[in-house]
Amino acid sequence: MSRIDLPQYLADATVAPELQSIILGLANVSADISKALAKGALAGILGAAGAENVQGEDQKKLDVIANDMIKAALAALPAVRGLASEEETDVVPCHTSGSYLVTFDPLDGSSNIDINSMVGTIFSVLPHTGEAVVTEQDFLQPGRHQRAAGYVLYGPSVMLVLSTGNGVVMFTLDQDTGNYLLTEADVTIPADAKEFSINMSNQRHWVAPMQSYIADLIAGKDGPRGKDFNMRWVAAMVADVHRILCRGGLFTYPWDSRKPDQAGKLRLMYEANPMGFLVEQAGGEVWTPEGKILDIQPEHIHQRVPVILGAANEVALCVDYHQR
Ligand SMILES: O=P(O)(O)OC[C@H]1O[C@](O)(COP(=O)(O)O)[C@@H](O)[C@@H]1O
Ligand SMILES: [Mg+2]
Ligand SMILES: [Mg+2]
């Protein structure tokens, strides 16, 4: 069976040529990253880099390698006005003629690297509307402004999941040819959920409404929900959200009292907004306890946010526990 490849899909979807060049550039570099990941210990690229990023987190060698590869690939594209990365302290100005800003999490799920488990690259493309040379201010746009968002999941197969604002599509990398081929054309998240995803080890640190909501899920058939729920936690947002796009469910990383001054663990501009764009495009919902994540006006590029996303009815109920 002949399948549509990524360039053909973008052309058929009449995606703006500059935007196409960015998506194709990210696809190409992700195929290279997947090769580096596949070599693993053989290439001496596992383990810690021995430095901290701007977020105060220990960097893995692969966080740094993937960041440098994506940065170089994007900086070579005339369409890119500037970029911002989870692993870069400041925004990086690129071409003064480019129409787009790109933000990315080069390697999501870093703690999975050393156990040969799933990781991914998450990206978001925003329009540039400011002055010639970009500043951080230019990036501070609500997620709703995104022109495209997606991720590459480095799993048993390598998949690129994308939205340009017209639904969500999934491509699988053909390792023989290096082409991403369309394997899922209409990704939809059912409104009701049978599965939830949260790091249960933090339970005692959550606010009371999250404690009650999750307790009612766990009570299953014997509790107020009257049905059983399954639980999954891959510890890579990219893989947990991928599962939700494939078979539904709810994912949350709430605020907790371990770091009370931090709004949440996940990053608004590199994780929550791009994944949120995909989830909304697939018919799901993406909230904090207060409102929709894609409507948040960012205050700085490394901002963090609590996240509740996935099945529309389940997200509404979880938010309702918080707002009662
Ligand atoms: O350590 P925990 O609580 O399981 O957190 C896992 C979460 O942290 C993250 O790995 C953070 O992402 P990075 O690996 O890009 O820092 C998320 O992908 C994931 O949902
Ligand atoms: Mg991440
Ligand atoms: Mg990361």
What's the total number of strands?
17
Overall mean confidence score, pLDDT: 95
Q: Domains counted in the coordinates: how many? A: 2
String of helices and strands: HHEEHEEEEHEEEEEHEHEEHEEEH
Query: Mind telling me the CATH class of the largest domain?
Result: Alpha Beta
CATH topology of the largest domain: Fructose-1,6-Bisphosphatase, Chain A, domain 1
Q: Give unreliable regions as ranges.
A: none
> For the report, how would you describe the main beta sheet?
8 strands, mixed
| Strand residues, percent | 15-25%
- Integer-rounded radius of gyration: 19 Å
With strands numbered from the N-terminus, the spatial order across the biggest sheet is 4-3-5-6-7-8-9-10
Name the shape in a single word: globular
The chain-level structural class is alpha+beta
Helix share, percent: 25-40%
Architecture (CATH level 2) name of the largest domain:
2-Layer Sandwich
GO molecular function, one term: fructose 1,6-bisphosphate 1-phosphatase activity
Family: Belongs to the FBPase class 1 family.
Protein name: Fructose-1,6-bisphosphatase class 1
Subcellular location: Cytoplasm
3D architecture notes:
The chain folds into two domains: 6-184, Fructose-1,6-Bisphosphatase, Chain A, domain 1 (2-Layer Sandwich), CATH 3.30.540.10; 195-323, D-Maltodextrin-Binding Protein, domain 2, CATH 3.40.190.80. A hairpin with a 4-residue loop joins strand 9 and strand 10 (179-184). The chain is globular and about 55 Å long. The strands form four sheets. The chain has an eight-stranded mixed beta sheet, with helices on both faces. The protein has a five-stranded mixed beta sheet with strand order 12-11-13-17-15, with helices on both faces. The protein is an alpha+beta fold. Helix 5 packs across helix 8 (312-323). The chain has eight helices and 17 strands. The mean pLDDT is 95. The termini are far apart. The protein binds 1,6-di-O-phosphono-beta-D-fructofuranose and magnesium ion (2 copies). The site of one magnesium ion has 4 residues, from strand 5. It is found in: Cytoplasm. Substrate binds at residues 108-111, 199, 265. It is an enzyme of class 3 (hydrolase).
